[in-house]
Structure formats: structure tokens, C-alpha cells
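Technical note accompanying the year-one report. For the benefit of new consortium partners, we illustrate the data format agreed upon in the data management plan: each record pairs a sequence with a C-alpha cell string. No post-processing was applied to the example shown here.
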Amino acid sequence: MKPHRLFALCILPVLLCGVILFFAPGRSLAVFYQKHYMVERDRDKDILCDPYVVQKDDFVIRLLEQRGDIAHKDFPKFLDIFKRINPRVRDMDLIYPDQQILIPLRILEPGTLTGQETGQVTIPVIPITGLSENLKQFADPYTVQYGDWISRLISERFGRYGSDGYNRGMRLFKMMNPEIRDPDNVRAGARIRLPDPEIKEKPWYSDVMDQARPSAAPAPSDKDNAVVPGRAANIPADIIEESQNNAKTGRPSVSVQWFADLSVLAKAAEILDARIFNKGRYFFPRSGERDLSLDLSKTPVLELSDGRKFLLTRRQWISPGDQAVLQVYWRNLEVLFVPRQPALTWLLEKLIPKLDPDGYQHRMEIEDKGLSTVLRGQFIYQPSKGQDTIYLNIFSDPEMKTPEPVCAYLESRAVTVRDWVETPEKSGWILHDTEPSNARRPESPAVQTRRPDRLVRLLVEKLGYTYHENVEVCFPYAGFQVRAAANLLSLGQNAEMLIDYGDLQGDAVDAIEKTGFQVLQIQPGNEPDAILEQLGDVLNLEIMDDPIFWMANRPRIHNISLQVPGFLVSSREKGGEKQVLLSHVPVAREFLTYFDQQNISVIRIR
């Protein structure tokens, strides 16, 4: 065997273990590609180096510990080499996202690799383009259930939300499910592949993950972004969000009360309006024995607003006898056994039923004078009798918030909306302002169906057309010049139409049309659907019966829908920019505000 092939076996055991696994007999053969490495001179020795682009939350020490033969044998020596071949990294505690560095892997003897003297060598590795198919053998088939979130499924297998293990798990999920473009929008019943946690134990796991990282641009030269010593510097998320939104609207579109670095238990306590005791010790006397010592840092206690307490512990950390001692002194204490790293949703699923004896629901309907509002969410529950119902959802993006007018409507129906945002960097409440503002309140004019002239005028004007009432029309008839009053609808580009509501009699309509005018006759007493059908043929309208509106910018499984009996009308000729809702029932003022924000005019028809 040639020397450079022997070297490849020595320096890349991680990759070759992956090769053996992927190319074992009986499995389909994949194709290698050549990865480029650099050879740097350091104190008269050749150092094989891996070019690397710094990712968010990378630590220099962690990067160096994960790579190469030098680091394993002599880490201080490895650090010295790293400093010398990366002169731009002046402070080992400050590296930047997208910064390009060289990671020393191995000291080379002269002639070890082909092309070594040129400063660049290539070594065969597994092609990333084939990873999605190959990694399926380490995936578990799964059918998405109602209420599932991909982020929760991944965190249960790879660690808490936002951790390095979680981020790797999400990258694996995307590689295994390339057909899923948006992990936050997967329907119940969909068949997906979840990465097997045992993949973390494979020797090639870290290299596969490194190869799967996206490439990035050169590092910034401005050190003002270096805000966190010891890890890749980045601009805090709340500042980024504010600056982006300021550029568009001049103010943040969503107000969020952020909490940084909260533990999962602290988040659950904040969401449930509970207190948490996780520091210090409690001592409980026992007859004939030493006092029972309870270390709150290991077995924290969560206290609800009604005084009930929950001791969160691993099953092997507390015996039934110790549990009995605790409940002698804390009669309202309940022991809740938790896994090693409980997910936030897991804790809420266990604790919310303690607040509401009926548990939590995923769906709730509100009927209001013909309006049908359906809430779909993660947790719908009533903390105690007499209190408002809580409508709680956990989102990954603040833009998924429930609109303020919808919150105000639900509040008037004894439902409190609570939107919690969970990002890799921080967590917090979306702040809703449900108090009436000084802004104008949109109106909903009411028309009688027996007055089609008013209905047509309001409809076409709100769709953006020009409408003139009682226009004098002069036309020849039976040898005479006849004058009459009609209504003129301007269609744009010098195109007009006369609309008659039964005033023109005999052959007058034919006589007018012979002059080049088009006449649309709408008879008094026609039902709204018949009037809309006539106008729809002439104006190319799109008409939807009993429309359903999805009120928030988020997946329907956790969204709010409003169904209004009536018609939603838009003009295809005008690009659907303006819409008109013709409602058979009164629309609540909060929904009128919502429709006004969505550029939808509302007309009540009776």
C-alpha cells in the first residue's frame, strides 16, 4: 500500500469508520469525493491543517479538542501550533462567526502525502450529497401525531432546545427528510424519519456534522461584535430583530419580554405563574434516624399559586420511604419523576393537568351570534374554577404571534392568550396590547337586500372602482332624443357601464346599447348571491361563500380560525389587493379592527 493511503487510515479513522459502515457488503455503493487540506510550515515541520469556517457558538478549545492526532497526544503543543499558524487570531477567547481558521491535525514527515510540497493535499471522504439517503439507515420511521412539534421530538432525543446536540439533531433531521422544507409546518399523519440518538455514538458522527455545516463568507474585521468571551461573537437576537424591523416599519413589529438563560424548570414556572425553589437544603426530622436532607439543587420544588408543591426528581434519587417523610410535613406535596433533560413541553404536559382537573385541550369553539371562532393550540385549559381559560402556545418565531384584535376579542370572551417564544438564544412572552387605542375604529355599514343600488355602490367602491349615481343619459328612441337617469360604473381605460335597477322600461335598454354603452340590469328584490353572480361575470370577481379566515401567521394546527356566514369578494382584475366581506351577521368590533389591518372591508347585509 502506498504511504499516503497508510496515512489516510491513520489520520482519518473517523471518516473511514463511516466508510466501512456505509459501504458494507450488500449495501448500495456511494461515491467518494476529494476534500482539500492545507499543509503549513511551522518551525521547519509540515503541519496538515483543516480549513474551517467558524460557526455560531463555537469555542476555540472545543474545536481543537475534537480534531486531530496532535490534540490527543499533546494538547498544549497543539495550542501553540494553532496560535502560530493563525496569526489573525490574537485572542483565543474571541473568534467570530464566518471567520476562517486553520486547525492543525497532524505533523507530517516529508513525502507522506502526494502534493505535500505544494501546500495542498486531498483525501477521500463521503460525499455530503449522498448523506440524506445513507443516513436513513440510522433513522426511525415516525407518523406525526396531532400536537407534535418537530423541535420537541428532536429535543427529546438530542438534548434541550437550542443546545449543540439539539442543533445537530435538527441538521440530521433535515438531511434525512430533504422533502420537508419547513420543519415547523408538518401535518398530522405525515410520515417522517427521526434520527436515532445512537448515531451520536458513531465515531464518524462529528465529521459528518462538520461537513453538513453551511459554508460562510470571510470573517468580519470589526471587533465590536465580540460580545461573549470564549465563544463565537454575535449580535444579540433582540438587537437584530429590532434593527431589521426598524428598517421596514420604523419600530419593532412584535414586542417580546425576553428572559435569558432560563432553565427548563424556570421557564415552566414562569409560564404557569409558579414559584421555584432550587437552591439550599431542607431538613425533615425522622423518628430514630438522622434528619432527611433535601438538596434543592438536585431535587427542585415548584409551588403553584394555590400552594400545591411538586418535587421534581429522578426516580432513583428518592425512595418511597423518603417520599412518605416529605409528605408528612408537606401534605400538599406531589412527587413528579422527570427524565434527565426534560423538555419544556413535557413538563407542561405533566403539570397543566394538575391545575385543571379536566386536563388540557387542543381545540375550543366559540359561537357568537353566527360567528364561529375555533381555537387550535398546544394547551387550552382553565387554571381553576372562575378563572379565564388559558390559550397557550409555544413558538419558535415571534412573528407567529396572535394579533392584538384577536386577543382582545378572546379576552372579552374570558379567554386569555399567552404566546411564549422559544429560540436557541432566549425565551420570553410576546406582549399583547389589548387596550383600545386612539386609532380610528373601522365601521361596518349595513345595507338592506331590498336596496341593491346601495349594496352595489358600496361593494364596487370598496373594490376600487368609480361609481356615479343618477347620471343623465341621452339616447335616440322612436325618432326622439330621450333623457333618463342611470348609474355609471367606470371600469378603467375609458370603459364604462350603466347599471339599471328597474328604472329603464320597454326598449330603452336596447336603444342605449345601440349607442355603444353596456347596460347591466339588476332587479329589486334579488338576493345577494344573485347580485354577486351578475357583477362577478362583468367584473371578473372571485367570490367565496362562508369564508374561513386563519387569524395568525403560523401553522393551522396551532392557529385560530374565524368563519363568517356571507361572501368574501375580491377583483381578479385589480390583483385581489382589496377584499370585501359581505356578512349576514354582525361582526364584533375587535374583528372589524383585524379585517381593517388586513385591508378587508366589511359590509353587513340584512
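Partners are asked to follow this layout when depositing records. The chain has 18 helices and 31 strands.
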